[in-house]
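Annex B, item 7. Sequence and structure tokens for protein A, then protein B.
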Amino acid sequence: MNVKIGVLSDTHLHGITKNFMDIYDKYLKNMDIILHAGDFVTTEVVDFLNSENFHGVHGNMDPFDVREMLPPKRVIELGSYRIGLMHGWGSSQGLEERIRPEFQNPDVIVYGHSHRPANHIRDGVLFFNPGTTIGYSSHGIHTIGVLNVGDEVYGEIINI
């Protein structure tokens, strides 16, 4: 198995923009799977990404209609790997500690909320946050993520 997963979070878009289309065409359209860790802000983005290879969860800034479409968390099983997907909540400090108990035996936890990229292993779990693709960035950098799944799983953060 050799699977490439494009990972987004915190797009905070009120519609599909040319910038978002360019990012999708350049980085995401050839991915095997696309994950979005919440804060779409509109159903237009969900509808645009929605296909059989898309998995998303809603975030704290998503309106009711997005929350009706997407769950607050999900687990994607890919071969022998379990990938937990959740937005997150509260302060950026301690975020990983709060979301870890939400999943049983994950290999990877993909999350958003903080708008800060993360790609590290803690207690045998890969914590992966793609940062913000287009939304507000306190550090001025917009990023997406790629998870490479094969004999092992590793992540890459890409500055866009």
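Protein B:
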Amino acid sequence: MKTVSLRSIWWLSTLALVLTAGAVYAAEHREHPGRTHAEEHPAEHPGTAAITPDEIAKTITGFVTADSKLKGGYFVIYDAKKKEPLALTLVRIHKDKITKLSDDLSFVCADFRTPAGKMYDLDFYVSHPEGRNMHVSEITIHKEAGVPRYNWVKEGGKWIRK
């Protein structure tokens, strides 16, 4: 009968410990813990489907609502032309005028009203570089009381602000 040396036992124990620790680490440090590989990496990326006007409108509504809660119930934007802040309330988002400017940028206009009743048309630019990871990237004052500060023209198949 062969005897097993203390050194062999130590090496086997160490190897078993390393393999167990590696398996535990791999299970705990997956890209998305608790999900299978197929769930972590689906065949079709959820951001590949076209973004709908409702999704863009919801992004803008959420942005305006969150900002208004922080600022006394009004959406506040600085009017650089008049050099003053405007306190506004959202009236409506023009879902029918949502325009795709590029693969990862859309824009839509929305009507706002001051407490005194003056109307403003703001253009919201919504970035969506990673599918549905949408966020408002720019806001401009397009019209004040129906008078445009700039216009949109189509050049070379793309809409340009002039």
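Comment on protein B: The chain is about 30% helix and 35% strand.
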